[in-house]
Amino acid sequence: MNTIKNQKLGRRSIKFDNPPVIIGTASTVGTKEGDGPLSKYFDKILQDDKYGMDTWEQAESKLQKQTCLDALKHLSLKPQDIRYILAGDLLNQCIGAHYSARDIGVPFFGLYGACSTMTESLSLGAALISGGYADKVMCATSSHFCSAEKQFRYPLEYGGQRAPSSQWTVTGAGCAVLSAYGSGPVITHVTTGKIVDYGITDINNMGAAMAPAAVDTMRYHFQDTGFCPTDYDLILTGDLGVIGSDIFTELLLEEGYDIRELHNDCGKMIYDLQKQDVHAGGSGCGCCASVFCGYIYKKLKDGEFDRIFLMATGALMNPAIIQQGESIPAIAHGITIERGKR
Fold first, then answer.
1. Beta strands at 21-29 and 44-45: parallel, antiparallel or unpaired
2. Distances from the Cα of 341 to the Cαs of 113, 180, 213, 301, in angstroms?
3. Which of 42, 234, 257, 289 is the most buried (most CB within 10 A)?
């Protein structure tokens, strides 16, 4: 009888005996993101946020597809070299990822974790490789400011005023290629989130809704792995923005973990918060995806970080259910990434 070695750690974490390698990435962002402080780290900056398409939704799908193809091109790989694509987005029925995967033609797992989708895809992709079910997988996601505003709030033509607590959905995409072999940063641990709901109902304050889920996952990660904050060079959240980041660090401090000197957030990094009018910072699936696949991955390869914790958070709601009086549930998935060669 075949036996599978137990890689479970604690209640909600995994430690991989054969850590999957992130052998390459690609990132694409829109014009506003290209004007931000991380512009030189992105592989491609769009000059037209419609990307030559007729609609925002078509533009987002093309954005994700081209980013996946760019990741393959960087590695001199072809679609047939990839066992699976794991991808999602914010749009109804994940149409950005579905039409992207249709055109690429690789076996596909569609994921929806709202803005947590990038680390959800990396978690599951790493498990597939470590378990021997794939040699190479692509993990990708995207978001688009205009398509997200149209779906979750109001179309841009409406001209509605944004609340001070609102965040700017990043127009961007990221794709990471994971492999069972090769050189590059490795995913060593995964801590899977659970749905947390503190009763927040303000659709314009995603940071407050998502921060408790980030606290929950971070706390379990420390308990399961035995790591403490100082074992990391960086604890990076995906899109809590300014308000959510403050709530996250304060609540975690109450739990006995002080990460204030180690924490940053992709939603605070991708824009110049003083010069660009984004209110509480960035958000969206493409926020974590583009910052990690562009900036952070390069810093890992250059040796500036030895070990980081990457955790993306997602608000799991839609306007219809909020209009029915429901609150906003949230989730956060986290992964440990270490610099190293195999």
1. parallel
2. 30, 12, 32, 10
3. 289
Question: Which pLDDT tens digit goes with each residue over 52-97?
Answer: 999 999 999 999 999 999 999 999 999 999 999 999 999 989 999 9
| CATH of the domain spanning 20-179 | 3.40.47.40
Report pLDDT digits (tens) over 257-291: 999 999 999 999 999 998 998 877 899 999 999 99
| Architecture of the domain defined by 186-338 | 3-Layer(aba) Sandwich (3.40)
Q: Give alpha helix (H) positions in 105-157.
A: 117-130, 145-152
Question: Which of 168, 145, 205 lies closest to 328 in space, CA to CA?
Answer: 205
Helix (H) or strand (E) segment spanning residue 28 = strand 21-29
Supply 250's token pair.
């304060």
In whole angstroms, what is the distance from residue 232 CA to residue 228 CA? 8
CATH 3.40.47.40 domain extents, the chain: 20-179, 186-338
First vs last C-alpha separation in the chain: 30
Find out whether 196 and 151 touch, Cβ atoms under 8 Å.
Answer: no
Mean pLDDT value of segment 43-52: 95
